[in-house]
Design a protein that fits this description.
Thiol Ester Dehydrase, Chain A; 14% helix; 3 helices; alpha+beta
């Protein structure tokens, strides 16, 4: 069950958080594919497949599937963004001019400090990078300085989507949702310490947008990295234009 606290779009769970939770049933880096919006505050099942995957199910349907990552995300990044640089551009992404999911656990500006992650990327000048500062709160589960891996997955989720969306013309009637995520968490961050989350677009193929993201220490060490695939969908309350 995913507590309602960890929502993404209204009424469904944050994709990165769910991917991280399901990936936790496997050893090492994992690729998680989301097949439908994960429900909130609803019992779901986790079953192992004989081939080695883990499946998240609800009402007889597969919600998500995790498999060992055949190609581990590299801890190399296009460039390093310092914490002062990230603070200078925080919240300047066009996304925040007209937020699609304002209560998202990760990037929703309607979430209060200490309630959501409040990671607000902005474009870095003269580089195809987006960056945001992040100071993790104590774990919602136990109040310690340890940050669970699924929270790191969540932190790497939305920033990559914002970079992917801003690097292309989605049109005013489209939004994007996470379709697949592959992540590698080498070092877990500590609550109360300052970090930088960076992201960058890597391509588009029809409805699919791809991006990368990484978590950096204050000194520029890459602690975690992810690759994501995003899918264009109709923006809530509107319809996607033909060809969007």
């Amino acid at each position: 069950m995913v507590p309602s606290h960890f929502n993404g779009p209204a009424g469904s769970a944050n994709g990165g958080y769910v991917c991280g939770r399901l990936a936790g049933y496997l050893d090492g880096p994992a690729t998680v594919t989301l097949y439908r919006p994960p429900p909130l505050a609803t019992p779901m099942t986790v079953e192992a497949d004989p081939a080695g995957s883990m499946r998240l199910g609800h009402a007889g349907a597969v919600v998500a599937e995790a498999v060992p990552a055949p190609d581990t995300p590299s801890l190399r990044v296009p460039d390093i963004v310092s914490l002062p640089e990230a603070r200078a551009v925080a919240g300047r992404a066009r996304y925040f001019d007209d937020v699609v999911f304002p209560t998202c656990f990760v990037c929703g500006p309607a979430r209060r400090p200490g309630d959501g992650l409040r990671i607000f990327p902005g474009p870095v000048s003269r580089r195809t990078l987006w960056a945001a500062p992040w100071t993790p709160n104590p774990s919602p589960a136990d109040g310690t300085r340890g940050v669970p891996p699924e929270i790191v997955w969540a932190a790497l989720d939305c920033p990559s989507g914002i970079a992917a969306a801003e690097a292309t013309d989605l049109g005013e009637h489209a939004a994007i949702v996470l379709g697949r995520m592959t992540a590698r968490v080498a070092v877990l961050p500590a609550a109360g310490d300052d970090y930088t989350v960076i992201s960058w677009p890597t391509g588009r193929d029809g409805r699919k947008l791809t991006a990368g993201s990484a978590l950096l220490s204050r000194g520029g060490e890459v602690l975690a990295a992810a690759r994501t695939v995003w899918l264009t969908v109709p923006r809530p309350g509107s319809a996607v234009r033909e060809g969007s």
